[in-house]
Amino acid sequence: MKSIEQKACGINVHRDNLVTTILLDNNTQQQQKQTRKIQNNQTDIQQLKERLTQHQCKKVTMESTGIYWTTLYPVLEESGFQPVLANAQQVKRIPGRKTDQINSEWLAHLLQADLIKPSYIPPKHLRELRTLTRLRVKYVQNKTQFKNRCQKLLNQSNIRLSSKLSDVFGKAGTEILNGLMEGKTVEEILTNTENRFPVDRKDELYEVAKGSLGEIDMFVLDELTRSADALTVQIREIEVRWSGLLMSAICRLCVRYPGRVVCRLLLFWLNWGIQSGLVMVNRLLLGAGLLHRCISQLV
User: Fold this and answer.
1) In a 3-state reduction of DSSP, which class is residue 69?
2) pLDDT value at position 83?
3) Exposed site from 11, 93, 235, 242, fewest CB < 10 Å?
């Protein structure tokens, strides 16, 4: 196996410990190596970084098994090392491993020979955007579940507002829901409302909302609607933070490519959307995709 990298480090990552092997210069017949088993904590990882710095070993590899590599990888990346995330299946298919060879040593040898195909790891700012986007998706799913439970509760009480209102949680629907949670009937709510939309359809609403809510039903409906409202606030906060990160990324691109008119147009378009309160993740994702495509074609 022909060596390309003079020094390399392989790490076998476990939940509680790390097995590290550092291969030193391969100038002699017998290659020097250092294998240690350390704890998977900040203290031992700091000592590992000091050992790597002492031996001037910049290339480090680990397998992408489990989730335990996700804490070690960014620590090494931020410290100036060059971590390589190996695909376990790809490494397994490479022949030549000795039967008594530990996994970390084998990974180090493969890294030296440049036989590891690195897995794609997005830059830090993209990882942060992904984290926020996934959290927003989860919140939207939870909000939808709360709304569906509200409609199920209303249907069980013979209050079928969804058959006449396109959005039960819109302006008219919210007013009716608030009245129902206060113990009012649909007739009382529509008599005192100033919203003309439900008043013009009061006969239709009377027909589908002849039921009533019990005390427990009103309590459950109040809990569900307050939970959905709280998630709405959290989703907006995520969108604001998300848009801020994206704007920073676009600004960096505009500075890097100052003559690109497309960058400046997209920056103006996204800024207009944020100022107008139209901070939707789909809109921002579309802008990021267009920006990436344009930059790829121009550069």
Assistant:
1) helix
2) 93
3) 93
- Tokens found for residue 105: 């040593």
What are the two backbone dihedrals, phi and then psi, of residue 158, each rounded to the nearest 5 degrees? Answer: 65, 40
- Pairing outcome for strands 82-86 and 17-23: unpaired
**Beta-ladder partners of 119:** none
Report the predicted TM-score, pTM, of the whole model to 2 decimal places: 0.70
What is the number of alpha carbons within 13 Å of residue 147 lying toward its C-beta?
19
Q: Quick one: how far is CA 185 from the chain centroid?
A: 43
Does residue 164 contact residue 203 with C-beta atoms inside 8 Å? no
CB count, 10 Å around CB of 69? Answer: 19
Contact predicate 96/45, CB 8 Å: no
Give the pLDDT of residue 272.
53
Pairing of strands 59-63, 82-86: parallel
Please state which of the ranges 84-93, 179-188, 265-274 shows the lowest mean pLDDT: 265-274
Decide: residue 86, CB within 10 A, 0-12 exposed, 13-18 middle, 19+ buried. buried
Cβ-proximal residues to 289 (8 Å cutoff; 6+ apart), any chain = none
C-alpha dihedral sign at 288, 291, 297, 298? negative
Q: What single letter denotes the amino acid at residue 11?
A: I
Contact by Cβ (8 Å): 175, 270 = no
pLDDT in tens, 229-244: 999 999 989 888 887 7
Query: Residue-wise over 122-139: b if at least 16 C-beta within 10 A, else e?
Result: eeeeeeebeebbeebeeb
Q: List the CATH code of the domain at 8-112.
A: 3.30.420.10
CA-to-CA distance for 213 and 224, rounded, in angstroms?
14
Instruction: Name residues whose C-beta falls within 8 Å of residue 62's C-beta, 6 or more positions apart in sequence.
Output: 10, 11, 12, 13, 69, 72, 73, 83, 84, 85, 86, 107
